[in-house]
User: Fold this.
Amino acid sequence: MAQAQMTSDYEQARARLLRKRKFRGDVVAYLVINAFLVGLWAVSGAGSFWPGWVLAIWGVLLLLDGWDAYFRHDVTEDDIQREMHRTR
Assistant:
């Protein structure tokens, strides 16, 4: 059982690290692509700020992804036991 628990812990830690790495890549893509869109808007006459829609919608989705990567934690055995005792 100890080996199975170590494997499970290892897999969970690896999955968390992969989520964080993906999030950092997504932030870089957000910055580069949106900088390009703002530059395109500025060069094309700077009328109505249409890149704001992309910035806002993508930004909200990026925040949700960041929450998932850095603040959401996997359910542990302790969490399950605590919930079971709470409902009795």
Remarks:
- The chain is about 80% helix and 0% strand.
- The chain has a mean pLDDT of 88.
